[in-house]
Amino acid sequence: MTEPSDPLADAESLELLEDGLRKTMLSTSGAELDAALAELGWADMLADMPEQAVPLVFRLLGETGSHASVLNDVVQQAADREVGATPALPYAGGGWVVWDYQNATNSTLGGLPLRRVEDGGLLRLADARRALGWWLVGASRAMLALARRHALDRVQFGRPIAAFQAVRHRLAETLVAIEGAEATLALPGDDNADLTALLAKAAAGKAALTAAKHCQQVLGGIGFTAEHDLHRHVERVLVLDGLLGSSRELTRKAGAGLRARGSVPRLADL
């Protein structure tokens, strides 16, 4: 008889895994991070525990500012194809891109090795959109942390700017947007997987754009400088929002689908 797993032990294992992944992502990125993740068993995690592995890995990519081609693996697995290939991915405006480290020198999209291609094929994107949503949430939290730290450290008129209501409102609105996106990403998508994932990616993209706008305002001019990390996160979320459909495009697509359907399905039990 199989003994039930210990929730505390599982939580401790995930915490240790998160610590290890964070350290790895803080020290390497790109093709080197792909190799490191392979050694850590990313393929097995994706196959055996995707509900835990995908949110964890993609959120940490956003928080650390690193990047890896793991989105390709999520797309390939959803299509029952071999992990490790580079499928063409839809991009905002009707374009297509390929995540390809072999052509990293030609990258012009937010520091990511994305090159434009003529056309793609039919793909199952629900899992990939959820994964990108977690990446956007992680980047949003990173921007919020930078803005919060600056608001506590920056002193004007004899007190930290975090004491000013206008600054507090921007940080609070950012946090609400992030928490809302996370809640949407956590929704079960058994019966309406495509719609739920589409809305989750749209919410995460909107949250990331909100974070970029408000955190830039809190940081002021220093946020534009090459010495500060904020501008890297801003560039990254602008690209990730467009990948697999921008928040604006996905919102319109969801609305058009619901109008054609004539009803709105229940996506969450409140």
UniProtKB/TrEMBL annotation:
InterPro entries assigned to the protein according to its UniProt record, in alphabetical order: AcylCo_DH-like_C, AcylCo_DH/oxidase_C, Glutaryl-CoA_DH_mitochondrial
Organism: Mycolicibacterium moriokaense
Pfam families named in the record: Acyl-CoA_dh_1
Domain Acyl-CoA dehydrogenase/oxidase C-terminal: 125-247
GO biological process: fatty acid beta-oxidation using acyl-CoA dehydrogenase; fatty-acyl-CoA biosynthetic process
Name this polypeptide is given: Acyl-CoA dehydrogenase-like protein
Sorted UniProt keywords: Flavoprotein, Oxidoreductase, Transit peptide
Entry-linked SUPFAM superfamilies: Acyl-CoA dehydrogenase C-terminal domain-like
Record PANTHER family: GLUTARYL-COA DEHYDROGENASE, MITOCHONDRIAL (PTHR42807)
Keyword Flavoprotein among record annotations: yes
GO MF annotation: an example: glutaryl-CoA dehydrogenase activity
Lineage: Bacteria, Bacillati, Actinomycetota, Actinomycetes, Mycobacteriales
